[in-house]
Amino acid sequence: MTLKISISGVRGIYGETLTAELVKKFGIAFARYAGGGTVLVGTDTRQSGPAVKEALFRGLRFDGKLKIVDVGYLPTPSVQVVVKALGADGGVIVTASHNPPRWNGLKFVRPDGIFLPPNEAQKLLDLYEQVSAEDLALAREGRLDVKTELEAGAIHLEKLKKIIDIERIKSAGLKVVMDTCCGAGALITPKLLDLLGVRHRQINAEPDIEKCRRALEPTPVNITELGQAVREFGADIGFAQDPDADRLAIVDEHGAAIGEDYTLCLVAEYMLGLLKQGRLAGANKICTNLSTTRIIDDVAAKYGAEVIRTKIGEVNVSLAMKKTGAVAGGEGNGGVMAPAVGFGRDSLAGIALLLQYLAESGKKVSELVSGNPRYYMHKTKLDCASEQQAAEILAKLQARYAAEKLDTQDGVKIIFADGSWLHIRQSNTEPIIRIIAEAKTEEKARALCADAVSSGG
Ligand code: MG
Questions:
Q1: What is the distance in A from the centroid of ligand 1 to the CA of 182?
Q2: Each residue's pLDDT tens digit, 357-406
Q3: Which domains does the chain have, with CATH numbers?
């Protein structure tokens, strides 16, 4: 399936499923959604970026009302932060996140810097369906009138400065290897590391995704070159981003990937500590989605903090954080949210906070990680052709585990007495049911998944 249009945005293979016409139509729809004013547009570093942007600009400018500010190569979190900071009327990020280089896509940001919640995303999809041939004819003509003078990255860096103690980090003499995967983080992340006064070495550093030597998702198997570079440079930590730099993965001082789910756990632990010391404002809560590791519960327990679990989808976590005032949050895929900076997943905030954590604690990454228990996650899936079949499978599973503690806000999550859990939900983007289990042993996690498959299938 090479075109995904969902409430999370649009992704496809540029020139095949993601056509210029489709992008223009989304531009027109977003112009109507924003209703005038100024829209910021940033891109990651795909070769189709300029062509997608051109089509998007034509759509956004179809009736000549919107002002467009092109902020160039810029991470998704930076666009989110800058839209809010400047009081813009929305933002669009041209990116397919971790999809391969030939893919591209669009993510839409509302004025408060978060993605569109499901009801508003549905409104945008309705507006997309309503785009007429006349609208498209208008979009073909007209002057583009795009402004490009804004130093948007600097605005994000200024925000980050407010949550960290630069002198403290500088004095620790830390060494860092950075793997930006030649993505949108390639320009701004070295500037952040310079600002923090750490010695750093870059790999996959050119802002051109075709030059990246690894698969783009920052999972442990894809970032072995980073591990090697950390060992060679004698670095304290290695960081890897995905192409639009919302996700952050970590390699420890031995060059071992600690797993993406651990990024949020470490940052949340540090932020709960700051809250306890009165150095950070917020509620003693962490927001994350239902499929995020239970290490986060262990971390929260140390600080008497509450964990608020949301439906899957970044915006659901963002909304929960805004509502509860939680001091920290994010997702287990390496997505860290620091509300003092913004309510989106922000790899740059993650980097700054983790370097400060290392500087203040005087501990190694491996020591910080070993301070919490480890669990094993296992994932599988069931084919599912229709909404009705999905509902039947979920009903069977809910009955099967009726005696256990259940959370049914997104599919069915079963929380067993020993702390292991099983989460079964319909995918938003594929005709499958996703099944995830986490337990103290790999054997147990696999057994939970197998039981769900045999009970639901
Ligand atoms: Mg991403």
A1: 13
A2: 999 999 999 999 999 998 999 999 999 888 899 999 999 999 999 999 99
A3: 3-154 (3.40.120.10), 174-251 (3.40.120.10), 260-370 (3.40.120.10), 376-456 (3.30.310.50)
